[in-house]
Design a protein that fits this description.
Number of helices of chain B: 1
Structural class of chain B: alpha+beta
Distance between the termini of chain A: 59 Å
Number of strands of chain B: 3
Number of strands of chain A: 0
Strand content of chain A: under 5%
CATH topology of the largest domain in chain A: Helicase, Ruva Protein, domain 3
Largest sheet of chain B: 3 strands, mixed
Order of helices and strands of chain B: HEEE
Family (chain B): Belongs to the universal ribosomal protein uS19 family.
GO molecular function (chain B): rRNA binding; structural constituent of ribosome
Helix content of chain A: 40-55%
Distance between the termini of chain B: 51 Å
Strand order of the largest sheet of chain B: 1-2-3
CATH topology of one domain in chain B: 30s Ribosomal Protein S19, Chain A
Radius of gyration of chain B: 18 Å
Largest sheet of chain A: none
Oligomer: heterodimer
Number of domains of chain A: 2
CATH class of the largest domain in chain A: Mainly Alpha
Shape of chain A: elongated
Strand content of chain B: 5-15%
Organism (chain B): Uabimicrobium amorphum
CATH superfamily of one domain in chain B: Ribosomal protein S19/S15
InterPro entries (chain B): Ribosomal_uS19, Ribosomal_uS19_bac-type, Ribosomal_uS19_CS, Ribosomal_uS19_SF
Keywords (chain B): Ribonucleoprotein, Ribosomal protein, RNA-binding, rRNA-binding
Largest interface: A-B, 11 and 10 residues
Number of helices of chain A: 6
Chain lengths: 125, 91
């Protein structure tokens, strides 16, 4: 198992796939990185030379916001929205969808598990 | 979809005029506005707006971080007073 940028340990899959194990690198940026460095996508990570691994690491470090830094950035952005008291900030605070989705039904990803209210009449019964 | 950058930000020109006028006189007075869709321009920083929310005018003091947002984002149009709690034992 190879190590790129500290904690990330992509395994013996194709390099493109391995790179996506890094938080902040998806399929698209993985492909772009490999194209730029001229590394074959299909190569397995274990077959990479030390040199290639280090060029990968420097490439990512210099041009991509990744891992902890990225999550910090995201958190900062949300924090900013909350602080300036705008509509999106309120939605974040309430844990409701931010981008105008409906909330009468669904929106469970943001709202979390259903909280059943006792004594509430069922509709259609 | 986001707005074409060629056009630049949308804003109410009257608002900018008023702000610049105030800048010249170097005083800050609340500006009443209905133009919720106006983008907050860098010139607006530290000026006070009274943004209409459909019913009242909401006081918004523009801070630097607000630049690029719309005025309407800071004057909520809905009031949510919570759901009605059903009284217990009452039938």
């Amino acid at each position: 198992m190879a190590r790129i940028l500290g904690v990330d340990i992509p395994n013996n899959k194709h390099v493109v796939i391995s790179l996506t194990y890094i938080y902040g690198i998806g399929n698209d940026s993985a492909q772009k990185i490999l194209d730029k460095l001229g590394i074959d996508h299909r190569k397995k990570t274990k077959d990479l030379t030390e040199e290639q691994l280090s060029t990968l690491a420097t490439e990512i470090e210099n041009n991509y916001v990744v891992e902890g830094q990225l999550s910090r950035q995201i958190r900062g952005n949300i924090q900013r929205l909350k602080e300036i008291a705008c509509y999106r900030g309120f939605r974040h605070r309430r844990g409701l969808p931010v981008r105008g989705q409906q909330t009468q039904s669904n929106a469970r990803t943001r709202k979390g598990p259903r909280k059943t209210i006792a004594g509430k009449k069922r509709v259609g019964k | 979809m986001s707005r074409s950058s060629k056009k630049g930000p949308f804003f109410c020109e009257k608002l900018l005029k008023k702000v610049l006028k105030q800048k010249e006189a170097s005083r800050i007075e609340p500006i009443k506005t209905w133009s919720r869709s106006s983008t907050i321009l860098p010139e607006f920083v530290e000026h006070v707006f009274l943004v209409h929310n459909g019913k009242q005018f909401h006081k918004v003091t523009v801070r630097e971080e607000m630049v690029g947002h719309k005025l309407g984002e800071f004057a909520l149009t809905r009031t949510f007073r919570g759901h009605i709690k059903k009284e217990k034992g009452k039938r």
